[in-house]
Amino acid sequence: MKEYLGEFEELVLLTVASLTTNAYGVSIKNFMEQRLKRDISIGSLHSTITRLEEKGYLTSSLGEPTQERGGRRKRFYQVTKSGKSALQEIKDLRDQLWVTAKPALSSSK
Amino acid sequence: MSNEIKPPKLADRIFLWYCKSASIEDIHGDVEELFYEDVKRHNLFKAKLNYWRRVVSLIFSYAIVKRKRNAAYHHFSYSQFNPAMFKNYFKTAIRNLSKTKFFTTINVFGLAVGMSLSLLFVAMVVFVYQFDNFHPNGERIYRVITHVQDRNENPSFASAPIGTAQLLNNNFSGVEKVVRIHGSLNHHVGYGENKIPIKGYFADADYLSIFNFPLLQGNSVTALAKPNTMVITEAAATKIFGSKNPIGELAFIEPFGEVMITGVAKNIPKNSHMKFEALVSFSTLTSHYGASFTDDEKKWNNFFNSYTYLLLAPNASPTPIEDFLNRIAKEKYKTDEFRATFELQRLDKIVPGPELSNNIGHGWSYESMVLNGLLPFIILLAACTNYVSLAISQALKRMKEIGVRKVMGGHKRQIFMQFVLESTIIMLLALSLSYFFFELIRDEALAISGETDLVDLDPTLGTYAGFIAFAVLVGFVSGIVPALHFAKITPITALKGKELQTKKGSRFSIRRFVITMQFILSLGFIMAVVIMVQQYRYSVNYDLGFDQENMLNVELQKADAQLVKNEFEKLSFVQTVSMSSHALGAGEAPGLYVRQTEKSDSIEASKMSVDENFIANMGLTLLHGRNFSNDSTQNVRFIIINEVFAKKLSPDDVYGALGQPIILPDKREVRVAGIVKDFHYSNLTSPIGNFFFEYKPGDFVYANLQLESTHISQTFSEMEAAWKVVGEGDKFKAQFLTDQIRDAYGFYFMIVKIWGFLGLLAIVVACLGLLGTVVFAIKNRVKEVSIRKVMGASSESLVYMLSKDFIILMVIASIITVPTVYFFMNWLLLTAQYYNVPIGAVEIIISLSIMLLLGMTTILSQTLKAANTNPVDNLRVE
């Protein structure tokens, strides 16, 4: 059965994809906050990441120890193949909807 | 800012604590990174605040929940009930124990010895906690107890005024039944010619319906309803009536007259605090003494014999009843000298319960149980310290194992668990061995404590459960020290095997301390026993001032004194016969108070009733005055006193006491006829005091036969034949005076037995501990010894080198113990026995040599072996 992809989940997934090799907790948070212009709580971000991992849309690996984080390692995330196809699917769905909705949207203008 | 900029510590701690073993390194790093960003962008305070906020949001987030859940199943991480690891610990423990068979044996044996006494105690505790658990309404049965405030001692009593029962009986809501109990029952029941001692009390008819003491015969509702009715137990029935059916029989009880048996109860189990042989109806009291017996206001102040038991209605609370009683108490007790409050005590809180005066039967209070547990605890402690010190000393061998476990991801708690499990296994092994010891000493212990009738230590399921729980508990507690010790080790030092060298000094001193303490304990007990034996021998051989050799005391029983005398005087080997009321020198002479004149102060004195032949027969010396004469009517008016008494009567001139009048407690006035030389009429525990002989044939208990012959067996049959003529069917009972005197010092024997046993346990435990430590120390120095030997050291010097350390410990133990025990025993003897033999060097030398002999044997057996082995055997390996 296909997993349902929520709106916030979709955004996180897209952010991870756009950060390529530098997607870890803080960078994801900062990236999204800049664009969304709102605060994201670190708790809900990590919860969402965990859910995405469970669904199999993200994988993660630990990086090297870093100085500025008290020597703690970062966990880097990557979008998996099924993550990519889930993103693709939701984009296709939107595109189709845009196509069908376009006349109405433009006429109301 | 002078401080280093860091995230708030407390938030950090809470976060890490909450996450436990879950891996949150990355998230933790994230929050810290964000914190430093915040510091740059805002101020420190804001950053800290944000940090807190983030931590809180994380704690409640799904991310942490999930990671924690994962951690619980992670195969490198700790889980409390991991059967696989548990199995592994078990296997390691068993392998390790069987690999070090010698130490295991020492441990198991030592612990078993140390545990044996504790098992007795556990069995007793289990027994005590099953008191009165057979009453189906138990949780609704209460008794009223009284707390008295009289400005001095504030005693608490198990008894309560009868009035409490009377008031509650008037349908106080919540009280279903009230039972009055009165303990003033005469201790003898007459039936036909016989008087039979019986224990029991008065009780209301409801007694049998509240408590579960089922009747075998008779109706439990009506059995105690009428005056002069009585319920007896099966055993009492056989005692009084033999095989006759007791129902409807009449027995005689002073002063109530004839009492009819209306019921026979099943024998009362030992685990009841209200054991009885007979119950007499409470109405017997009221019908004999009238209504004033219960209603008299004085009874509120004098309630030493009356008890009140209540059966509450289901779901009723005792508090309103207590309040009601205490309101009454305020009305009744108005003086400051005597105030009292009442409390309802539930049946299951009675035994074991707080210490109360006036208990209705025999029970155990918490205090007495703690006292009973003290000695077993000391011995067990000694055995456990052995285990701990041996376990730690083997640390080196286990180091690699622990190191590997830790490197593989073993947690502190896992290592801890492992060693605790190991000690529990040892303890369970020791338990099974200890159980045999327990069976061996059980009956003897009961006999010594004289509580055979009161305690039932036959093991039940509960006892076994108690034993196992006890062993597991002891295993856990004694495992804690070595387990913590091992769990603390860091993997690097463990794998390098450095542990022993770095911490050698401090650990060694713990072991030394343990050994020294154990030897102090053993030596203390040995010394005490030796001193007690010496006291006993001294007391028995003491010159009491009269002849005790070949003096046979024949119990007169129902026989007539004159007839007995005539009959025994016919026997050729009986030299003289006299009569007396007590055995001389066995501590039996009763004390009483006499006066010189009606108005003078009373004088404390002891007395015996004797006939005119007694003084000569016993070899006492009449210093002055005259003996009793043949004229018994005259004799009654005179007494013969000892020197101490004479000095008391006329301090200046001893002989002035002659002819002085003395008023005896029964108001008879007698005169001093003679003075005898002082002798030990009582035993040696008290000094010679005022003493007098009176002539009162009714009191005679013994015929004192001075025997000639030494062929005792032959003379006995002749005496038995003589006794048959006068004995009225009773059995011939006779004892030599020397034996009676010996028996009077039986308490020394009891102490010697108990302390001797404790000493034995202590010395066994101490020697085993020493043995283990010596063996271990030698094992560690095998190479050193071998090299020294190769280099030319003699066996003697090696033995000396190896033994030196331990001998020093024993010397230290002796130096501490000898004066301590000396002073303690001196004090004890001074208070316990007036005529005692001072503790001499002999006792100290004997006890020291016993301890040194055992200790040295232990040490030398090992050091000699080590010193005499061929050094090649130990060096060739490398």
Automatic annotation (TrEMBL), chain A:
Stored Pfam families: PadR
Domain spans labelled Transcription regulator PadR N-terminal: 15-89
UniProt superkingdom: Bacteria
InterPro entries hit by this protein: Metal_resp_DNA-bind_regulator (IPR052509), Tscrpt_reg_PadR_N (IPR005149), WH-like_DNA-bd_sf (IPR036388), WH_DNA-bd_sf (IPR036390)
PANTHER family in the cross-refs: PADR-FAMILY TRANSCRIPTIONAL REGULATOR, TRANSCRIPTIONAL REGULATOR RV3488
Protein name: PadR family transcriptional regulator
Organism the protein comes from: Chryseosolibacter indicus
From TrEMBL, chain B:
Protein name: ABC transporter permease
NCBIfam families listed in its UniProt record: perm_prefix_2
Transmembrane stretches, start-end: 108-131, 374-396, 416-438, 464-487, 513-533, 745-778, 798-825, 837-860
UniProt keyword annotations, A-Z: Cell membrane, Membrane, Transmembrane, Transmembrane helix
Annotated ABC3 transporter permease C-terminal domain residues: 374-491, 757-871
Subcellular location: Cell membrane
Membrane-topology descriptor: Multi-pass membrane protein
The keyword Transmembrane belongs to this UniProt entry's keyword annotation: yes
Family annotation (InterPro entries): ABC3_permease_C, MacB_PCD, Macrolide_Exporter_MacB, Permease_put_prefix
Domain called MacB-like periplasmic core: residue spans: 104-323, 520-705
Annotated coiled-coil segments of the chain: none
